[in-house]
């Protein structure tokens, strides 16, 4: 009887330690990966994204876009405004839900 209880407690202790070790190993793996130097391809990719972000902030729009791109953009916007009506097509629309949907969301 005592031997059975000791084995049962040993089993519970082993499973608790196992869970604890798995969590710690998982967290240490994440910390190790963050401390590790980036792969050269990853570093190049991130550098190019940062470079594009800086250039797009300086130009205020797409990078290395010429006059032809701006002409095509204006023609497309004019065509869309004729098809779908007035409004600023360069901004994301704001949605206002009224009626049954607000009643459903209150529940």
TrEMBL record:
One annotated Gene Ontology cellular component of this protein: proton-transporting ATP synthase complex
| Coarse class of the protein's main subcellular location | mitochondrion
Q: Where in the cell is it found?
A: Mitochondrion; Mitochondrion inner membrane
Protein task: Mitochondrial membrane ATP synthase (F(1)F(0) ATP synthase or Complex V) produces ATP from ADP in the presence of a proton gradient across the membrane which is generated by electron transport complexes of the respiratory chain. Subunit F6, of the mitochondrial membrane ATP synthase complex (F(1)F(0) ATP synthase or Complex V) that produces ATP from ADP in the presence of a proton gradient across the membrane which is generated by electron transport complexes of the respiratory chain. ATP synthase complex consist of a soluble F(1) head domain - the catalytic core - and a membrane F(1) domain - the membrane proton channel. These two domains are linked by a central stalk rotating inside the F(1) region and a stationary peripheral stalk.
The record's similarity note reads: Belongs to the eukaryotic ATPase subunit F6 family.
- State if Heme is listed as a keyword: no
One GO term of the biological process aspect: proton motive force-driven ATP synthesis
The family database entries (PANTHER family) matched by this protein are listed as:
ATP SYNTHASE COUPLING FACTOR 6, MITOCHONDRIAL (PTHR12441), ATP SYNTHASE-COUPLING FACTOR 6, MITOCHONDRIAL (PTHR12441:SF10)
**Source organism phylogeny:** Eukaryota, Metazoa, Chordata, Craniata, Vertebrata
* Keywords noted in UniProt: CF(0), Hydrogen ion transport, Ion transport, Membrane, Mitochondrion, Mitochondrion inner membrane, Transport
Oligomeric form and interacting partners: Component of the ATP synthase complex composed at least of ATP5F1A/subunit alpha, ATP5F1B/subunit beta, ATP5MC1/subunit c (homooctomer), MT-ATP6/subunit a, MT-ATP8/subunit 8, ATP5ME/subunit e, ATP5MF/subunit f, ATP5MG/subunit g, ATP5MK/subunit k, ATP5MJ/subunit j, ATP5F1C/subunit gamma, ATP5F1D/subunit delta, ATP5F1E/subunit epsilon, ATP5PF/subunit F6, ATP5PB/subunit b, ATP5PD/subunit d, ATP5PO/subunit OSCP.
At the top level, the lineage of the source is Eukaryota
Which GO molecular-function terms appear in the entry? proton transmembrane transporter activity
The protein in question is named ATP synthase-coupling factor 6, mitochondrial
The reply to whether Mitochondrion figures as a keyword in the UniProt entry is yes
